[in-house]
Protein backbone atom coordinates (compact mmCIF):
# COMPACT_ATOMS: atom_id res chain seq x y z
CA UNK A 1 0.00 0.00 0.00
CA UNK A 2 1.35 3.41 -0.94
CA UNK A 3 2.03 6.18 1.52
CA UNK A 4 -0.72 8.23 -0.14
CA UNK A 5 -3.32 5.51 0.51
CA UNK A 6 -2.09 5.09 4.07
CA UNK A 7 -2.48 8.84 4.71
CA UNK A 8 -6.05 8.73 3.32
CA UNK A 9 -7.02 5.85 5.63
CA UNK A 10 -5.48 7.62 8.64
CA UNK A 11 -7.47 10.79 7.84
CA UNK A 12 -10.66 8.79 7.54
CA UNK A 13 -9.98 7.07 10.86
CA UNK A 14 -9.25 10.37 12.55
CA UNK A 15 -12.43 11.89 11.09
CA UNK A 16 -14.50 8.94 12.31
CA UNK A 17 -12.93 9.24 15.76
CA UNK A 18 -13.76 12.97 15.91
CA UNK A 19 -17.38 12.25 14.95
CA UNK A 20 -17.67 9.57 17.63
CA UNK A 21 -16.17 11.89 20.23
CA UNK A 22 -18.55 14.68 19.15
CA UNK A 23 -21.55 12.35 19.47
CA UNK A 24 -20.36 11.12 22.85
CA UNK A 25 -19.84 14.69 24.11
CA UNK A 26 -23.28 15.72 22.85
CA UNK A 27 -24.95 12.83 24.63
CA UNK A 28 -22.98 13.57 27.80
CA UNK A 29 -24.07 17.21 27.64
CA UNK A 30 -27.69 16.19 27.08
CA UNK A 31 -27.50 13.78 30.01
CA UNK A 32 -26.01 16.47 32.27
CA UNK A 33 -28.75 18.92 31.28
CA UNK A 34 -31.42 16.29 31.91
CA UNK A 35 -30.03 15.38 35.33
CA UNK A 36 -29.68 19.05 36.27
CA UNK A 37 -33.27 19.72 35.19
CA UNK A 38 -34.59 16.80 37.21
CA UNK A 39 -32.55 17.86 40.24
CA UNK A 40 -33.80 21.44 39.92
CA UNK A 41 -37.40 20.22 39.80
CA UNK A 42 -36.86 18.03 42.85
CA UNK A 43 -35.25 20.87 44.79
CA UNK A 44 -38.05 23.23 43.77
CA UNK A 45 -40.66 20.73 44.97
CA UNK A 46 -38.86 20.32 48.29
CA UNK A 47 -38.48 24.10 48.66
CA UNK A 48 -42.16 24.67 47.96
CA UNK A 49 -43.69 21.84 49.97
CA UNK A 50 -41.63 20.88 53.01
CA UNK A 51 -41.50 23.01 56.14
CA UNK A 52 -38.15 24.60 56.89
CA UNK A 53 -39.03 26.22 60.23
CA UNK A 54 -39.41 24.74 63.70
CA UNK A 55 -42.77 25.10 65.46
CA UNK A 56 -41.33 27.83 67.66
CA UNK A 57 -39.91 29.81 64.76
CA UNK A 58 -43.15 29.46 62.80
CA UNK A 59 -45.14 30.69 65.79
CA UNK A 60 -42.90 33.73 66.25
CA UNK A 61 -42.92 34.54 62.55
CA UNK A 62 -46.69 34.34 62.16
CA UNK A 63 -47.25 36.56 65.21
CA UNK A 64 -44.96 39.24 63.79
CA UNK A 65 -46.46 38.93 60.32
CA UNK A 66 -50.01 39.40 61.64
CA UNK A 67 -48.93 42.37 63.75
CA UNK A 68 -47.23 44.11 60.80
CA UNK A 69 -50.09 43.33 58.40
CA UNK A 70 -52.65 44.65 60.89
CA UNK A 71 -50.74 47.92 61.09
CA UNK A 72 -50.69 48.11 57.27
CA UNK A 73 -54.47 47.68 57.10
CA UNK A 74 -55.05 50.47 59.63
CA UNK A 75 -52.57 52.75 57.87
CA UNK A 76 -54.47 52.20 54.61
CA UNK A 77 -57.99 52.31 56.02
CA UNK A 78 -59.00 55.31 53.92
CA UNK A 79 -57.98 53.65 50.67
CA UNK A 80 -59.72 50.38 51.61
CA UNK A 81 -62.97 52.25 52.27
CA UNK A 82 -62.60 54.23 49.06
CA UNK A 83 -62.34 51.09 46.90
CA UNK A 84 -65.36 49.46 48.65
CA UNK A 85 -64.49 45.86 47.82
CA UNK A 86 -67.17 43.89 49.68
CA UNK A 87 -65.19 40.63 49.44
CA UNK A 88 -62.21 42.18 51.25
CA UNK A 89 -64.49 43.58 53.96
CA UNK A 90 -65.98 40.10 54.33
CA UNK A 91 -62.47 38.73 54.91
CA UNK A 92 -61.79 41.42 57.51
CA UNK A 93 -65.11 40.55 59.15
CA UNK A 94 -63.94 36.97 59.55
CA UNK A 95 -60.65 38.29 60.96
CA UNK A 96 -62.70 40.16 63.59
CA UNK A 97 -64.25 36.91 64.82
CA UNK A 98 -60.85 35.21 64.91
CA UNK A 99 -58.65 38.07 66.07
CA UNK A 100 -60.65 40.79 67.90
CA UNK A 101 -57.41 42.51 68.90
CA UNK A 102 -56.98 43.54 65.26
CA UNK A 103 -59.67 46.22 65.76
CA UNK A 104 -61.02 45.93 62.22
CA UNK A 105 -64.54 46.74 63.47
CA UNK A 106 -64.14 50.39 62.52
CA UNK A 107 -63.47 49.57 58.87
CA UNK A 108 -66.35 47.08 58.82
CA UNK A 109 -68.79 49.50 60.45
CA UNK A 110 -67.84 52.41 58.21
CA UNK A 111 -68.27 50.27 55.11
CA UNK A 112 -71.72 49.10 56.19
CA UNK A 113 -72.72 52.70 56.99
CA UNK A 114 -71.54 54.05 53.64
CA UNK A 115 -73.79 53.93 50.54
CA UNK A 116 -72.63 51.27 48.09
CA UNK A 117 -73.92 50.71 44.57
CA UNK A 118 -75.23 48.15 43.92
CA UNK A 119 -76.32 47.96 47.55
CA UNK A 120 -76.97 44.21 47.32
CA UNK A 121 -73.22 43.57 47.73
CA UNK A 122 -73.62 44.35 51.43
CA UNK A 123 -75.51 41.07 51.83
CA UNK A 124 -72.18 39.30 51.36
CA UNK A 125 -71.19 40.73 54.74
CA UNK A 126 -74.60 40.78 56.44
CA UNK A 127 -76.91 37.92 55.36
CA UNK A 128 -79.84 39.87 56.88
CA UNK A 129 -79.25 42.89 54.68
CA UNK A 130 -82.46 43.52 52.67
CA UNK A 131 -81.85 42.62 49.01
CA UNK A 132 -84.02 44.15 46.32
CA UNK A 133 -84.81 41.42 43.81
CA UNK A 134 -84.70 43.74 40.80
CA UNK A 135 -81.31 45.18 41.84
CA UNK A 136 -79.84 41.74 42.46
CA UNK A 137 -80.86 40.44 39.05
CA UNK A 138 -79.77 43.57 37.23
CA UNK A 139 -76.38 43.26 38.93
CA UNK A 140 -76.16 39.56 38.01
CA UNK A 141 -76.92 40.46 34.40
CA UNK A 142 -74.11 43.04 34.26
CA UNK A 143 -71.39 41.12 36.11
CA UNK A 144 -68.74 38.65 34.95
CA UNK A 145 -69.37 34.95 35.48
CA UNK A 146 -67.62 34.51 38.82
CA UNK A 147 -69.40 37.53 40.30
CA UNK A 148 -72.69 36.07 39.06
CA UNK A 149 -71.95 33.00 41.19
CA UNK A 150 -71.40 34.90 44.42
CA UNK A 151 -74.43 37.12 43.81
CA UNK A 152 -76.53 34.02 43.27
CA UNK A 153 -75.10 32.46 46.44
CA UNK A 154 -76.08 35.53 48.47
CA UNK A 155 -79.79 35.13 47.66
CA UNK A 156 -80.50 32.03 45.53
CA UNK A 157 -84.27 32.33 46.05
CA UNK A 158 -84.30 35.82 44.55
CA UNK A 159 -81.88 35.20 41.68
CA UNK A 160 -83.49 34.89 38.29
CA UNK A 161 -80.80 32.53 37.04
CA UNK A 162 -80.00 28.90 37.75
CA UNK A 163 -76.68 27.22 38.60
CA UNK A 164 -77.00 25.26 35.36
CA UNK A 165 -77.25 28.43 33.29
CA UNK A 166 -74.08 29.72 34.92
CA UNK A 167 -72.30 26.33 34.77
CA UNK A 168 -71.71 26.99 38.46
CA UNK A 169 -71.67 23.41 39.71
CA UNK A 170 -69.38 21.88 37.11
CA UNK A 171 -66.47 20.21 38.93
CA UNK A 172 -63.71 20.52 36.31
CA UNK A 173 -64.61 23.33 33.91
CA UNK A 174 -63.12 26.36 35.63
CA UNK A 175 -59.49 27.34 36.26
CA UNK A 176 -57.33 30.17 37.58
CA UNK A 177 -59.28 32.93 39.39
CA UNK A 178 -62.59 31.41 38.33
CA UNK A 179 -61.75 28.16 40.12
CA UNK A 180 -61.06 29.87 43.46
CA UNK A 181 -64.08 32.16 43.02
CA UNK A 182 -66.25 29.13 42.31
CA UNK A 183 -65.13 27.71 45.68
CA UNK A 184 -65.71 31.09 47.38
CA UNK A 185 -69.30 31.24 46.10
CA UNK A 186 -70.01 27.63 47.08
CA UNK A 187 -68.84 28.29 50.65
CA UNK A 188 -71.33 31.16 50.90
CA UNK A 189 -74.08 29.13 49.28
CA UNK A 190 -73.47 26.38 51.86
CA UNK A 191 -74.34 28.87 54.62
CA UNK A 192 -77.46 30.20 52.89
CA UNK A 193 -78.83 26.89 51.55
CA UNK A 194 -77.13 23.96 53.29
CA UNK A 195 -79.81 21.63 51.93
CA UNK A 196 -78.24 21.88 48.48
CA UNK A 197 -75.42 19.67 49.86
CA UNK A 198 -72.43 20.62 47.72
CA UNK A 199 -69.85 19.20 50.16
CA UNK A 200 -68.48 16.72 47.65
CA UNK A 201 -68.02 19.45 45.06
CA UNK A 202 -66.37 21.77 47.61
CA UNK A 203 -63.88 19.08 48.57
CA UNK A 204 -63.18 18.32 44.91
CA UNK A 205 -62.42 21.98 44.19
CA UNK A 206 -60.18 22.17 47.25
CA UNK A 207 -58.27 19.15 45.96
CA UNK A 208 -57.85 20.76 42.55
CA UNK A 209 -56.60 24.00 44.11
CA UNK A 210 -54.11 22.35 46.47
CA UNK A 211 -52.80 20.18 43.64
CA UNK A 212 -51.94 23.40 41.81
CA UNK A 213 -50.30 24.82 44.95
CA UNK A 214 -48.00 21.79 45.11
CA UNK A 215 -46.33 22.91 41.87
CA UNK A 216 -46.76 26.67 42.15
CA UNK A 217 -43.62 28.68 42.80
CA UNK A 218 -44.96 32.21 42.39
CA UNK A 219 -45.98 33.52 45.82
CA UNK A 220 -48.29 36.30 44.71
CA UNK A 221 -51.94 37.32 45.00
CA UNK A 222 -53.50 34.14 43.59
CA UNK A 223 -51.27 32.02 45.86
CA UNK A 224 -52.69 33.78 48.93
CA UNK A 225 -56.23 33.38 47.65
CA UNK A 226 -55.89 29.65 47.04
CA UNK A 227 -54.69 29.01 50.59
CA UNK A 228 -57.20 31.36 52.23
CA UNK A 229 -60.23 29.91 50.44
CA UNK A 230 -59.30 26.28 51.13
CA UNK A 231 -58.91 27.13 54.81
CA UNK A 232 -62.25 28.96 54.75
CA UNK A 233 -63.84 25.88 53.19
CA UNK A 234 -62.83 23.95 56.32
CA UNK A 235 -60.04 21.86 54.82
CA UNK A 236 -56.84 22.77 56.73
CA UNK A 237 -55.52 19.22 56.28
CA UNK A 238 -55.06 19.98 52.59
CA UNK A 239 -52.77 22.95 53.26
CA UNK A 240 -49.04 22.45 53.79
CA UNK A 241 -47.41 24.61 56.44
CA UNK A 242 -44.59 25.38 54.04
CA UNK A 243 -46.98 27.29 51.81
CA UNK A 244 -47.84 29.56 54.74
CA UNK A 245 -44.15 29.96 55.58
CA UNK A 246 -43.57 31.18 52.03
CA UNK A 247 -46.38 33.72 52.38
CA UNK A 248 -44.79 35.07 55.56
CA UNK A 249 -41.37 35.16 53.92
CA UNK A 250 -42.78 37.22 51.05
CA UNK A 251 -44.20 39.96 53.31
CA UNK A 252 -42.96 43.43 52.44
CA UNK A 253 -40.99 45.64 54.79
CA UNK A 254 -44.08 47.85 55.12
CA UNK A 255 -46.13 44.92 56.42
CA UNK A 256 -48.11 44.34 53.23
CA UNK A 257 -48.00 42.15 50.15
CA UNK A 258 -48.39 42.72 46.41
CA UNK A 259 -48.84 40.65 43.28
CA UNK A 260 -45.13 40.06 42.63
CA UNK A 261 -42.66 37.33 43.54
CA UNK A 262 -39.16 38.06 42.22
CA UNK A 263 -39.94 38.96 38.59
CA UNK A 264 -43.16 36.94 38.41
CA UNK A 265 -46.76 37.93 38.97
CA UNK A 266 -49.80 35.70 39.41
CA UNK A 267 -49.86 33.35 36.44
CA UNK A 268 -53.49 34.28 35.84
CA UNK A 269 -52.44 37.84 35.12
CA UNK A 270 -49.23 37.53 33.15
CA UNK A 271 -47.44 34.84 31.20
CA UNK A 272 -44.01 36.48 31.00
CA UNK A 273 -41.58 37.76 33.65
CA UNK A 274 -41.59 41.48 34.39
CA UNK A 275 -38.51 43.46 35.31
CA UNK A 276 -39.89 46.87 36.25
CA UNK A 277 -39.77 48.31 39.74
CA UNK A 278 -41.33 46.24 42.54
CA UNK A 279 -44.93 47.50 42.98
CA UNK A 280 -46.09 48.78 46.37
CA UNK A 281 -48.16 46.61 48.69
CA UNK A 282 -51.85 46.58 47.78
CA UNK A 283 -55.02 45.92 49.74
CA UNK A 284 -56.20 42.93 47.70
CA UNK A 285 -53.06 40.87 48.29
CA UNK A 286 -52.50 42.13 51.84
CA UNK A 287 -55.97 41.47 53.23
CA UNK A 288 -56.06 37.99 51.70
CA UNK A 289 -52.65 37.18 53.18
CA UNK A 290 -53.61 38.57 56.58
CA UNK A 291 -56.85 36.59 56.51
CA UNK A 292 -55.10 33.29 55.75
CA UNK A 293 -52.62 33.96 58.58
CA UNK A 294 -55.46 34.68 61.03
CA UNK A 295 -57.20 31.47 59.99
CA UNK A 296 -53.96 29.55 60.43
CA UNK A 297 -53.22 30.90 63.90
CA UNK A 298 -56.69 31.25 65.40
CA UNK A 299 -58.94 28.81 63.53
CA UNK A 300 -56.60 25.86 63.02
CA UNK A 301 -53.65 26.27 65.42
CA UNK A 302 -53.44 22.57 66.26
CA UNK A 303 -53.18 21.62 62.61
CA UNK A 304 -50.16 23.89 62.02
CA UNK A 305 -48.18 23.20 65.19
CA UNK A 306 -49.27 26.38 66.98
CA UNK A 307 -50.62 24.86 70.19
The secondary-structure class comes to mainly alpha
User: Could you list the spans in which at least 5 consecutive residues all have pLDDT below 50?
Assistant: none
Q: How many runs of DSSP E, i.e. beta strands?
A: 0
- Helicity range: 55-70%
H and E order:
HHHHHHHHHHHHH
Mean pLDDT: 89
Q: What spatial form do the alpha-carbon principal axes imply?
A: globular
Global Rg: 27 Å
Quickly count the helices.
13
Measured by DSSP, the beta-strand proportion falls in under 5%
Give the terminus-to-terminus CA distance: 90 Å
- Main sheet makeup: none
Briefly say what this structure is.
This protein is mainly alpha-helical. It is built from 13 helices and no strands.
Structure description:
It is a single chain. With 307 residues, the chain is an all-alpha fold. The chain has 13 helices and no strands. The radius of gyration is 27 Å and the shape is globular.
Keywords:
single chain, 307 residues, mainly alpha, 63% helix
Furnish the topology, listing elements before pairings:
Layout: H1 3-49, H2 55-75, H3 77-83, H4 86-98, H5 105-113, H6 133-142, H7 145-154, H8 163-166, H9 176-192, H10 199-215, H11 221-232, H12 241-249, H13 283-299
Helix pairs in contact: 2-13, 4-5, 4-13, 6-7, 7-9, 9-10, 9-11, 10-11, 11-13
Amino acid sequence: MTDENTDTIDCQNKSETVRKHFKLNWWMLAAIILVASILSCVLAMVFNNYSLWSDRKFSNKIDKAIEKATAWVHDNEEDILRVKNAALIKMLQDCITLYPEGNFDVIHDKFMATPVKPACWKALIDPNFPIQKWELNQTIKNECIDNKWILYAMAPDKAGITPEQMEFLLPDKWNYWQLTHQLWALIHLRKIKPEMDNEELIEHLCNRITHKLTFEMTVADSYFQKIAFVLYAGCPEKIRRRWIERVIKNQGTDGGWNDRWLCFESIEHRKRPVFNKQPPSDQHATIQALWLLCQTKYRYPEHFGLN
